[in-house]
Specification:
There is one protein chain. The chain contains four helices and 14 strands. It is mostly beta strands and 201 residues long. The protein has a single domain, classed as Electron Transport, Fmn-binding Protein, Chain A (Pnp Oxidase, Chain A), CATH 2.30.110. The relative contact order is 0.20.
């Protein structure tokens, strides 16, 4: 089949998210100027550059107590910093709990019963026990077409890796099984890994 998004697909559910899969999940933690901590998962997330290392996530939609956006973007606009926590399969239920739309003055770490620890270089918490975390300084926020669509780019200035997952000089994702987002309400987990050498290697 072929369809134009602005004309509709005619299916029971929107297939777009199921086509662009799997997607890594950026579990974005921030702290506002009143020292209220926030954490929320974003499946429009990825690394975008090596030198300097940079990442991006996109926020879509808004909430009742923010002006045209969500807590994460609002906090980053204020503080110019955020942390990306990597989600393991083991933390899937806590990650899902932090997707709940809560008032801006509620700490999602407490709501999801997540243990947190302060970052080293930015005034922001990270998830204690997460496989890895990326401390980021804001590069740019771009407003995208559509209501409340924002792409947030950050430079990674500090990287935490759990020592248990560093095996023979490599960060071994098979030891913690990263959670990935598929379409609809579906997720997957990385358990099978294989290597392919590039032609120029």
């Amino acid at each position: 089949m072929f369809y134009k998004p602005d004309e509709g697909h005619g299916l029971k559910n929107n297939p777009f998210n199921a086509i662009v899969t799997p997607r890594p999940i950026g579990w974005i933690s921030t702290r506002d100027k009143k020292s209220i901590d926030n954490i929320a998962p974003y499946s429009f997330f990825n690394a975008v550059a090596y030198v300097p290392p940079q990442v991006m996530f996109a926020s879509t939609g808004d909430k009742f107590d923010r002006e045209g956006t969500k807590d994460s973007v609002a906090n980053i606009k204020e503080t110019k910093e955020f942390c990306v926590n990597i989600v393991s399969y083991e933390m899937r239920h806590q990650m899902n709990a932090t997707s709940k739309s809560l008032p801006a003055d509620i700490d999602e770490f407490e709501h999801a019963e997540l243990k947190k620890i302060d970052c080293n270089l930015i005034e922001c918490p990270r998830v204690l026990g997460a496989p890895a975390a990326l401390e980021c300084k804001l590069v740019e926020i771009i407003q995208l077409p559509g209501a409340a669509n924002f792409a947030v780019f950050g430079e990674v200035i500090g990287i935490h890796m759990h020592d248990d997952y560093i095996i023979e000089g490599k960060f071994d994702v098979s030891k913690f099984n990263p959670l990935t987002r598929l379409g609809y309400r579906d997720y997957s987990v990385v358990r099978e890994i294989f290597s392919i050498s590039r032609p120029d290697d």
